[in-house]
Amino acid sequence: MGNISSTTAIVPLWVPVAVFAHVFAAFWLLKTVLLGGSSALFKKKKAKKADQGQPSSPLAPSVKGPDANSGAAEPDARLSTDQNQPDQEQQTPFGEQQGFHETFKTAAGSLAGSEDGDEEEEDAVPDVSPLACSTLRQHLSVQPETFDMEWQEMGCSYNIQGTTKVVLQGIWGRAHPGEMQALMGPSGAGKSTFMDILAMRKSVGSLSGRLLLSGRPANTSFIRKTAYVPQEDNFVPTMTTKETLDFYASVILPSSWSGAKKHERVVEVLDAVGLGHGHKTLVGGTLPGGLMMRGLSGGERKRLSIAAGILAAPAVLFLDEPTSGLDSFAALSVMGYLQRMARAAEHIIISTIHQPRSAIWQMFDQVTLLANGRLMYHGPREEMTEWFGRLGYSHSPLEHGVASDWALDLVAVGFAKPAKYYGHTMRTRDDLAAAAKAFMEHYMRTQDVTQSDNLPATTLGNQGTIADRVRSIMGPAAPGASITDIQPDRGNKYPTGALRQFISLVHREFVLITRNPFDVAARCLTFTWVAILIGLLYYGMPTDGSSLRSRLNLCYVGLSFVVLMPYISMGLYTSDKKFYLADASAKLYRPVAYYFAKVFVTTPFQIICALCFAWTLYGMAGMRHGGTAIAKWGAIVTLVYLISVQVLHACAIAAPNQDTAFMMSIVWTTVQMLVSTFFVNFSEVTFNYWLTQLRYISAVYFGFEALVLNEFSGVTLDCSNGMGEEYMNFVLTAFPRMTAAQKQILGRMSQPQPEGTVAVVDYFEFGRPFGVTVGILLGYLGIMHALTYLAMVVSARKEAR
Ligand SMILES: Nc1ncnc2c1ncn2[C@@H]1O[C@H](COP(=O)(O)OP(=O)(O)OP(=O)(O)O)[C@@H](O)[C@H]1O
């Protein structure tokens, strides 16, 4: 039997804990501030360097920013280092208005004025001359495997409530190393579907078709030779460009590569996309929690995406709308770097693109135009207008502008197209079908289509066979048709092992949370300040029986705070889901590596925050003295907090949106707090007693029991003055349905006695051993982790394309 000490507040506990919390938070805040500051300084220096057009390494492109072009005195020097080289880009046999040089000159010159003085603008267009590209090629440490691609009769259909919806049919084409291919079409034409099939990343729908690499059927190893750059990147805003690529290098480059080789590759790729001078620049963007962090410009960010895409030297790089969201000059800059990489490293680039400006349009070698799931054109960019001219749809540059815009207008049907603006154009699906059929006949006639086992023979000039072929192509795609060589790799999809991924993810998670001022630092301070606020209210609690109510309340207040506190982080949990799903769709790492890394990094910080709260409050209020009691209080409060965090995290992942996540969490929290026995003793519930069984899912119920036992068990409060009228009235009002026996206990306590035994533990019918409660709470936490993980994996499956 111990006594509650007559000295109340435990100063040696709460003061060091509160000081630690502030130093801890200040440390992380300072690190973040210094990081942001150095980045800002760095950016200024970098802007100067870019203005001077000084390459920082042999790989850095000789670039000119908008300012450098404004004089237009020597614009072509940049693009034609080798004056003797014939200018391929100017070969526009079918009447394009401007060559690339000329268009770029005009565009860059006109933009220069508007960009003047803008220190943020870091974009520049690289030198894409053959000499510059071959110089770059010589310096690259890794060369991608090169092969010709040929795809035949690709299609996709979905079974929707028993009916077959054909979204893509009869798509043929080819691509060669170093080539830039544009994939265009109106919205819903099937561009994403086609690109996903071609990239072997499509896992839903009935797929058909065949992919040949240098004449041989592709197998699932093809997926490792490709990279996919999505429209939206998924970078951690608080990482630098170098750290970002280091992370990608660690998870996508083969484990057999040494650290030095990976480092070399990261540096050369950053140089190649013109980011070599800003290794320490933060990526920036919106942090989970809403804070905007200054970082890369839109164009630089897109170039970083491209750098991540080409890091593993893929033979084929697929890009989804690489210029979306960029201003005109940044878009030109990004595409310039892309073209340079395609030429230098002989990547095949296949990119969806919407309404490219003239200069960008002319960077493409080949074009695939889709409409309504059909192939309208596939071939050289400069021959597209000629082809449609043959069908009677003529392009007039003066009237219709850029050929790409005109082609998109031409194949867009389903809305009024006044002849005044559109001239002779396609208006109906029948028009599209007729044009697709004509193109297929043309393609079969003019292309040396590779024979393969699954496809009927097609030979140049064999009209009968071609007609058969066309008929089969133009018919609806056979439901359920699939050819194995375009199925996604379902085996070992990851280039690195789970442990390697775990280590890389631990580093990224650490940076993600410690550099976010809303995360570690703010949370630690909030927990401590709230504890101080509550502690001030309870500071100097008496040590006799009159403190019974306060001590009991504090047990409950401590737990209710940690149950409610995770709500301030709901935004972090929902953004975490978005973040994970984007990476999962890119199949960057195993879900289990991600989950363990997340738990491994976040749990210690959560424990620190919970303990700062628990012990500051405990010490200030002057709860039961003694190391064991203090440790037990800290353990229970922390466990309930971890459970609460995990429940909210699980809700954020399982729910389709944040509002639903809030609703699910609030139901759980209500149960936690109501069925904790603090508000109503279970034996007093006469109506709907079954509801009290919900206690078994209430972490607060178990936690409250442990804290009450910790505070009162084996303790004798001095009741020599009795509890007094005030406390008696409080207890009677708070527990109106008391049994006669309970009232008797209370009556005893109300009388002045030399030493009164506190009957709180008896009243609540508490008695579970502390170890059992801890075991139950740990089990609860484990189950919540399992459910969160399950919800994560299920959500990722639902996102399958
Ligand atoms: N899982 C699916 N189930 C049923 N239909 C689908 C599914 N996914 C896509 N579609 C349909 O397939 C068609 C082609 O879609 P896709 O996303 O490939 O077009 P897109 O050309 O990329 O369009 P956008 O430019 O708007 O992205 C659309 O009509 C779309 O509604």
Short note summarizing the structure:
With 801 residues, the chain is an alpha/beta fold. It is built from 29 helices and 14 strands. Helix content is 52%, strand content 9%.
What does this structure look like?
The chain has 801 residues and is an alpha/beta fold. It folds into two domains: 331 residues, no CATH class; 305 residues, P-loop containing nucleotide triphosphate hydrolases (Rossmann fold, 3-Layer(aba) Sandwich). Helices cover 52% and strands 9% of the residues. Strands 6-9-10-3-11-12 form a six-stranded mixed sheet, sandwiched between helices. A four-stranded antiparallel sheet has the order 2-1-4-5, with helices on one face. Strands 7-8 form a two-stranded antiparallel ribbon. α26 runs antiparallel to α27. It is elongated, with a radius of gyration of 34 Å. The structure holds adenosine-5'-triphosphate. The site of adenosine-5'-triphosphate has 13 residues, from β1, β2 and α6.
State the main characteristics.
four-stranded antiparallel sheet; 801 residues; six-stranded mixed sheet; 14 strands; Rossmann fold; alpha/beta; 29 helices; binds adenosine-5'-triphosphate; elongated; single chain
